[in-house]
Amino acid sequence: MSNVSLGYAGRKVIDGLSARVPRAGITTLLGRNGSGKTTILRALIKYIRPMGGVVYLGGRDIAQIDARDMPYLISYVPAELQDELGISAYNVVTGARNRSGWVDEARARAALEGLGIGSLHESTFSELSTGQKRLVMMARAIAIDAPTVLLDEPTSGLDPANRLAIMRAIKGMARRNKSVIVATQDIEMAFESDWVIMIKAARLIGCGPSSRVMTSKLLGELYDSDVSIRRFGARRLAIFSGSAKRPSAAEEL
Fold first, then answer.
1. Homologous superfamily of 2-252 in CATH?
2. How far apart, in whole angstroms, are the C-alpha atoms of residue 154 and residue 79?
3. What is the pLDDT of residue 51?
């Protein structure tokens, strides 16, 4: 993105954002509620148009990409999961398009089984738990096999086992040279990412490798709190102390 402003009905949610992501690996968009993370993902799938600036996808100006070609270039898993009209989990996956056409049976079953939910293929999607729905939608993203994958709050509301399954799937896609962009409030995921874009009050406050951006200083600025980072073996944890200040009006948009 180059000097991109985004918003709705003339109201800016993102203002003058310039940031890049690696062509392969895990990128986390980290920010508080209402900071514009989902809006950025929507711009990347051409759901909204920029108020200014240029959005790039794979090095191309997204405005020059035909909307009919988008499903072959990018897959998107939203935070809010629809009931998919009562169809089965299997049909949710096979109802997606990839570069070869519709997702075929073998690829759909492999994606579901790879996430440990092969037994759910005949289950009605609307009757699944939130965690199971997220796993099915992740299987759909895997089966689409697009070079760029967008995930909005993929670990929200998940138990530890399902969160681990989602994290393994995300890392697996990154190992296959995909660019996985995750909008989240999950700080642990940001620590495990390759790249972090930190957004506050509609503006960029940090962009770069996780080891450089996920610092006490920037996390403290993001959350208006005192933050220290502790290491437990290979893991890093953020420890918050004191009360966070009330977010600005821009953050509450």
1. P-loop containing nucleotide triphosphate hydrolases (3.40.50.300)
2. 7
3. 93
Dihedral in degrees, nearest 10, Cα atoms 34, 37, 41, 43:
70
Q: Where are the alpha helices (DSSP H) in 15-129?
A: 37-44, 70-73, 89-94, 105-114
CA-to-CA distance for 194 and 221, rounded, in angstroms?
21
Whether the full predicted model's pTM is greater than 0.85, yes or no, is yes
State how far the Cα of 253 lies from the Cα of 244, in Å rounded to an integer: 18
Q: Residue 245: what pLDDT?
A: 52
The continuous run of DSSP H or E covering 97 comes out as strand 97-98
Residues of the chain where predicted confidence (pLDDT) is lower than 50: 246-253
Residue 30 near residue 197, CB atoms below 8 Å: yes
Domain limits of the chain? 2-252
